[in-house]
Amino acid sequence: xxxxxxxxxxxxxxxxxxxxxxxxxxxxxxxxxxxxxxxxxxxxxxxxxxxxxxxxxxxxxxxxxxxxxxxxxxxxxxxxxxxxxxxxxxxxxxxxxxxxxxxxxxxxxxx
Length: 111
Known about the structure:
The chain is mostly helical and about 110 residues long.
């Protein structure tokens, strides 16, 4: 790799780490605290947390799931000569392809 490519990847990694470390989630355990918490404050924390889960799901998990689905298809095709004589083709399809497809395209966003 060229030196400029490595530097660009390093800058991207540092920016991602800074963004991850500076974004703080809601304070867990606040419901066990004796201090009164307004309902609006609870709702804003929950909404922010739900929004971050949805964002991670859309930006990170769904693309990785699509890659896993394609990789599972390749692994399924590669395993067919070994699985076909045993008659467990449907089970192998479920393991390599369907589970990843279901998690990526059927599962509700943020769940």
